Amino acid sequence: MECCRPDHGYTHDSRAVKFLFEILSSFDSEQQRLFLQFVTGSPRLPVGGFRSLNPPLTIVRKTFESTETPDDFLPSVMTCVNYLKLPDYSSIEIMREKLLIAAKEGQQSFHLS
């Protein structure tokens, strides 16, 4: 977790950040590649791994209106700055599902969020 920078609502001790790294460690190599491509725009890490990403992977809390629930949304990214906008999902299972959907569906597209 030292390789990332939680910000804007998250810390290294946040449940969502801990969920994220637990999920990433459970992904197989293809799922890890999809996630990496989704977040950074590149299918491979630089020499030195996540710690060598420049800028570092930043994980922020995705915000919503008070009437909306985070479980209804996918994470979004800004690949040029390795920036992951991650909702504070209600469970690790939902986070895993939403990360995989976003990583798979976001491979060949570019959208503003």
From TrEMBL:
Q: Does the keyword 4Fe-4S apply?
A: no
Q: Where is the HECT domain?
A: 1-113
Q: What GO annotations for molecular function exist for this entry? A: ubiquitin protein ligase activity
Q: Some GO term, biological process aspect, for this entry: which one?
A: DNA damage response
The enzyme's first-digit EC class, named in words, is transferase
Q: What is its EC number?
A: 2.3.2.26
> Do you know which Pfam families this protein is assigned to?
HECT
Q: InterPro entries under this entry? A: HECT_dom, Hect_E3_ubiquitin_ligase, HECTD1/TRIP12-like
Q: In which pathway does it act?
A: Protein modification; protein ubiquitination
GO CC terms: nuclear speck
Active site located where?
80
Q: Which reaction does it catalyse?
A: S-ubiquitinyl-[E2 ubiquitin-conjugating enzyme]-L-cysteine + [acceptor protein]-L-lysine = [E2 ubiquitin-conjugating enzyme]-L-cysteine + N(6)-ubiquitinyl-[acceptor protein]-L-lysine
Tell me which domain of life the UniProt entry assigns to the organism this sequence originates from.
Eukaryota
Q: Which UniProt keywords apply?
A: Transferase, Ubl conjugation pathway
Q: Describe the family membership recorded for this protein in Swiss-Prot or TrEMBL.
A: Belongs to the UPL family. K-HECT subfamily.
The entry's function note states:
E3 ubiquitin-protein ligase which accepts ubiquitin from an E2 ubiquitin-conjugating enzyme in the form of a thioester and then directly transfers the ubiquitin to targeted substrates.
The protein, known as:
E3 ubiquitin-protein ligase
Q: Which organism is it from?
A: Micrurus corallinus (Brazilian coral snake)
